[in-house]
Amino acid sequence: MNIELLVSKAKQVCDNRGARFTPIREKVFRLLATKQGGVGAYDLLEELKLTESSAKPATVYRALDFLAELGFIHKIESTNSFMLCHHFDHIHPVQLLICDSCGHVQELHSTAISHELNNLSAEKGFKVKAQTIEAHGLCEKCQQ
Q1: InterPro entries in the record, alphabetically (predicted)?
Q2: How many CB atoms lie within 10 A of CB 63?
């Protein structure tokens, strides 16, 4: 998807929610928009320092917290990295296919998986508040 279109959409979401899409938040968003897989916070920091020499780890973590809170990004817990969500204009179930060879991450949105997890959880008396399911393996390219 076009990065400018994503940025415009993100700014609109922020405006609708009364949130500030500061220049630093936008820069971190743009960096993530150029990536195919998960990116670590310190890798983002190094790239951010190219234009923001005074950037510190807290700068990046605050921006990532904001972007996650608004649903613009997903945190990949198993690799402690982050990726842009191209479907942030609506709440959706998330399943991530993570290639252990090249690092590519593909996002799925299966409501069937989401419903099954919620149903099984409810049977155990558990209420799911949020779910991101991560599956590790090899992408099609790396299997060849």
Answers
A1: FUR, Fur_C, WH-like_DNA-bd_sf, WH_DNA-bd_sf
A2: 24
Secondary structure (DSSP) of the chain: --HHHHHHHHHHHHHHHT----HHHHHHHHHHHT-SB-B-HHHHHHHHTTT-TT--HHHHHHHHHHHHHTTSEEEEGGGTEEEE-TTTTS---EEEEEETTT-BEEEE--HHHHHHHHHHHHHTT---S--EEEEEE--HHHH-
Domains and CATH numbers, the chain: 3-84 (1.10.10.10), 94-143 (3.30.1490.190)
CA distance 3 to 54: 25
Asked if 105 and 97 touch (Cβ cutoff 8 Å), the reply is yes
Q: Give the predicted TM-score (pTM) of the model.
A: 0.87
